[in-house]
Amino acid sequence: MMNNAFSRPANAIHYELLHQTPLGPQHVSSSGTATFLIEEKLERQSQLAIKVGDEVQTGQKIAPFADRPAYFVSSVTGTVAAVHPQTGDFGKQYTAIEVTLSETEELAEGPETLEPTLTCLNEWLAGTPGKPPLHLFEAVDHGIHTLVVAGVDADLLVATNQYIIKSEMHAINRGIDVLKEATGVGSVAIAVPRDLVQGFGHTSADTLKAVAPEYPAAQPRLIVYEAFGQEIPAEKSCEEMGYAFFSAEAVASIGKAFDSGRLPYEKTLTLVDKNGRKNIISARIGTPIADVLAAHRIETGHKDRLILGGPMTGFAIYDEQAPIEADTDAILVQDAADVSLVSDYPCVNCGECVRVCPTRVPVNMLVRFLEAGQYEDGAELYDLYSCVDCGLCSFVCIARIPIFQYIRLAKYELSRLTEAEASDAQ
Amino acid sequence: MRSEKMFIVSHAPFWHNGSNVADRHYGMLMAAMPAVALGIVHYGMSAVAVVALAVSTAIFWEWLMCRISKRPVTVADGNAALLGLLFAMLIPATTPWWVVMVGTLLTVVIGLHIFGGIGSNPFHPVAVAMMMLMVSWAEFLDFNAALVHYNFTFNAVFPLSLSKNFGSAAVADFSSLNLLLGRQVGGIGSTFGLGLIGGGLYLMAKRYIRWEICLSFLASIFVTALAFHLAAPDQYAGPMFHLLTGYTLIGAFFLLPESASSPVNPIPMLIYGAGAGIMTMLIRNIGNYYDGVLLAVLLMNLVNPLLDKIRPKALGKVA
After folding, report:
1. B263: which chain A residues are within 8 Å (Cβ-Cβ)?
2. How many C-alpha atoms does A135 have within 13 Å on its Cβ side?
3. Which of B310, B315, B318 best probes binding to A when mutated, by most A CB atoms within 10 angstroms?
């Protein structure tokens, strides 16, 4: 039932390297529509500054709300066909803007001037391919001292940022210069797979950090631990400890924008077909995934699984028409025969999860609390917050308990609780 | 949504290493086969009858408990069959049918299901059942009495009773080789040293059981027995004798490492195994019973949750 790629032993999972720079990304075009998602809740149509039938141009910045600064950069020329609310994972609220493409493409004027300031970056490039987390620098007392450009992808099979770091170093250097000036950050480091450190050319970064090939070493908390030698306290995030992670693609997009004066909208991503074959492709943000699959002749069938992101931490989606977003680094298609299912079998305490856990969380005990909904006890007694969300515990669980899902759910519920308490206190 | 085909939407990870609980149980059943086979060679059809009855009734009790407690019937995972087989391996081939049935009932119902089924048993279910039988009907489990009508080519006295009653000289003619080859009386599947060791190695290689537990137990038996032997060579038999007689080997590879009732962290596993070895030897040499493995298993099962609190500090945990 499972082919070899799906049954590798837990202690031997390695990130794959792109050994030579692959041929330039194969471009995929949209067949007729593009959808843009904005992380804002649409309550009433009257909030909108745009309406169905409005013309949009390629590269045009559009702020769809009259009362909010949120915006997107249209990657196509066409007319707005629909604007509707959409709900994502964990109840996240989006507003979706659907655009029907017109026959001819018209390029919008770029921003008049792009200045290396945080305000300017936020105004034009917050949704650029790679989705730079500029908000990390917005808080007055952010305390960010190191900007880490991740030339590694945290999940398996995904090779997007590894590809960018090999092929777009020029743009990355430019992006680093811009970010240094805009944020005043003290130090910039590039994280690359250990095997690529040798022969790495000159960069604008201050240091180069090697990332071990064993999954999940490319996960930000583990990069800080292994490469910077600092153990991030379980309750703190990387940014709270002064490390801001930007994907290589985000930095390259910023660099390209400053080089060309136009807003980038071409997303690079890894497409993995049902046989595990990898392709680096590029497509405009907003392109329906169905178009990408069609262009690569990947047929999907009933009970297949369509995953955004990698096999360990990605999210399965139900709709082929879902668009490529600024942070969609991979599309993974899994055949119905390879879909591994979870079970409601109880934990038999075999200890595989404890042995595989990269952060030494007592998963066997934790999952007993999480199954019972005792999230706070799980966090206090059994190190819930030491978890770095790698999913290995679920991968090796012989009872096939959805451990990782319990952990994500627990963190989400606890964050809601904290938010509710914070708002009560006010 | 927009088409008839529907995708499976589930949560990460989307890969699994392919392991499952049933494989583990069937692997353990296979690993036990050589030892059972020699038991059948020694004891003939009565051993076949006991094994068949134990396995089938254990499965039946499991099925019944699943039905009564309105839970999905989990007979197919092989757990009940494994428990039935392990129970049969510990008892004499002449055990009456009703003792076998009561034994598997105690194993599956009292040992396992009243605690909540697989994964929730604080003790090894078979050890629980065996101790209850030993308290209630010791005469059926006395190997010397039970196997008196068999004619063997080897000394047909239970070795541990000889050493306990008559000192180490009485067991001088049990060579390690003979013990390894199963030339001793005992439970149906607990006397064939080589078979049990082979099964144990297979299970450790497949990572179905943890070497930390097995090896620390055997090492601790060896060291403790050696200490007794050196202190009073006439009274206490040597370490090899204790390693290869009674339930030592079946305990090391099939009873102690049972996952729900044993620790998962490295240091607790070592303490767990070593503690069971010391307790076994104390009971054998000083206590009342001939063999102490089952009691040692139960005792260490009892302290397992405490032991497992010794664990490495998680990443980012403030001390």
Report:
1. 351
2. 4
3. B315
Reported pTM: 0.91
The answer to whether A307 contacts chain B (CB < 8 Å) is yes
Q: Contacts of residue B259 in chain A, CB cutoff 8 Å?
A: 348-351
A130 touches chain B (CB under 8 A): no
3-state secondary structure of A33: strand
Neighboring chain A residues of B71 at a CB cutoff of 8 Å? none
ipTM of the predicted structure? 0.91
**Along the 319 residues of chain B, how does pLDDT read in single tens digits?**
455 789 999 898 999 999 999 999 999 999 999 999 999 999 999 999 999 999 999 999 999 999 999 989 999 999 999 999 999 999 999 999 999 999 999 999 999 999 999 999 999 999 999 999 999 999 999 998 888 888 888 888 999 999 998 988 888 889 999 999 999 999 999 999 999 999 999 999 999 999 999 999 999 999 999 999 999 999 999 999 999 999 999 999 999 999 999 999 999 999 999 999 999 999 999 998 999 999 999 999 999 999 999 999 999 887 6
What does residue B285 show for φ and ψ, rounded to 5 degrees? -90, -30
**Cα–Cα–Cα angle for B235, B240, B243, rounded to 5 degrees:** 100
Write out the DSSP string of A36-76.
EEESS----GGGBS--TT-EE-BT-EE--BSS----EE--S
Residue B120: CB partners within 8 Å, gap ≥ 6?
A346, B260
Q: Side chain identity at B73, as an amino acid letter?
A: V
